[in-house]
């Protein structure tokens, strides 16, 4: 059988059939393309060869912001060092795009942004002297969906009083963020557990006639008041998220 199609059946310049991944790659085209796409800033690569296996064209799609000359040098160096292939820089063409990301990356970013919009973030805690002697004023600030909310509670200037005030202020902020239901702090205590100090809280969550008792804990690290805020978030995270997004 004669003719161009018979003399070079594996010509890389021709469209590859569906089973191309399992076919021989005599000129190492796929190896070269895989190498180039592993370089920083390179999104995709296409290597074109002559029937004799010589590289005639290298087409690169790269992210914007990287100097084209530096990309060309990186491509030349990689091909020479890894494959022993010397390519004239004039055969390398660079196209740059502002923002092209794999679908998986876009999905991850979308999930992360969505989770940040839904999550309640602990922004700050302030403990200062109260308006009356032997009292403390505890202020708690949270953020949810880009919206900041704060609440304050005054209590006796004791560790137990400040812990309860921090937990109560946190519950008050969360209650404002709910679209459905409400919640009320039942108690907050510092307890000893496995040689550690832990704040334990109980919160009553109500939705219509249904009520459920939520519990949460947080180890005391920086301060008991901060642990009280984190314990409330631990107790209410899942329940309040469903009501905020309803």
The number of helical runs is 6
CATH names the topology of the largest domain as Double Stranded RNA Binding Domain
Which structural class is indicated by helix and strand composition?
Answer: alpha+beta
Mean pLDDT: 79
Summarize the helix and strand pattern as letters: HHEEHEHEEEHEEEH
The neighbouring-strand order within the major sheet is 1-2-3
- The amount of beta strand, in percent, is 35-45%
Q: In total, how many domains does the architecture comprise?
A: 2
> What is the CATH homology-level superfamily of the largest domain?
Alpha-isopropylmalate synthase LeuA, regulatory domain
Shape: elongated
The CATH class of the largest domain is Alpha Beta
Bin the helical content.
25-40%
Stretches with pLDDT under 50, minimum 5 residues: 1-13, 15-23, 114-118
Q: Please give the number of β-strands.
A: 9
Provide the CATH architecture of the largest domain.
2-Layer Sandwich
Largest sheet: 3 strands, mixed
Beginning-to-end CA distance, first to last residue: 71 Å
* Gyration radius over CA: 31 Å
Explain the overall architecture.
By secondary structure, the protein is of the alpha+beta class. It folds into two domains: 9-100, Alpha-Beta Plaits; 116-244, Alpha-isopropylmalate synthase LeuA, regulatory domain (Double Stranded RNA Binding Domain), CATH 3.30.160.270. 35% of the residues lie in helices and 35% in strands. The chain is built from six helices and nine strands; from the N terminus they run ααββαβαβββαβββα. It has helices spanning 4-7, 29-37, 68-83, 103-118, 159-177, 224-244; strands at residues 42-49, 55-63, 92-97, 120-129, 135-144, 147-156, 182-193, 196-207, 210-219. The strands form three sheets. A three-stranded mixed sheet has the order 1-2-3. A three-stranded antiparallel sheet has the order 4-5-6. Strand 8 and strand 9 form a beta hairpin. Helix 5 (159-177) runs parallel beside helix 6. The radius of gyration is 31 Å and the shape is elongated. It starts with a helix and ends with a helix. The model is unreliable at 1-13, 15-23 and 114-118 (pLDDT under 50).
């Amino acid at each position: 059988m004669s003719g161009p199609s018979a003399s070079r059946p594996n010509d890389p310049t021709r469209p590859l059939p569906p089973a191309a991944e399992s076919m021989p790659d005599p000129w190492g085209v796929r190896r070269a393309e895989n190498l180039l796409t592993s370089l920083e800033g390179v999104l995709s690569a296409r290597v074109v060869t002559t029937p004799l296996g010589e590289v005639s064209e290298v087409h690169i799609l790269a992210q914007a912001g990287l100097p084209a000359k530096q990309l060309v040098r990186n491509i030349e160096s990689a091909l020479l060092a890894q494959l022993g292939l010397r390519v004239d820089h004039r055969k390398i063409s660079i196209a740059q795009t502002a923002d092209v990301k794999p679908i998986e990356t876009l999905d991850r970013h979308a999930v992360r942004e969505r989770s940040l919009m839904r999550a309640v973030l602990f922004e700050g805690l302030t403990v200062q002297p109260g308006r009356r002697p032997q009292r403390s004023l505890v202020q708690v600030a949270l953020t949810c969906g880009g919206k900041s909310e704060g609440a304050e509670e005054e209590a006796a200037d004791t560790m137990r009083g400040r812990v309860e005030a921090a937990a109560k202020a946190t519950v008050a902020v969360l209650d404002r963020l709910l679209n459905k239901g409400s919640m009320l702090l039942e108690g907050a205590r510092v307890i000893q557990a496995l040689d550690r100090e832990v704040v334990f809280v109980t919160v009553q969550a109500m939705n219509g006639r249904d009520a459920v008792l939520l519990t949460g804990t947080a180890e005391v690290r920086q301060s008991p008041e901060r642990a009280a805020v984190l314990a409330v978030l631990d107790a209410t995270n899942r329940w309040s998220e469903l009501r905020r997004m309803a």
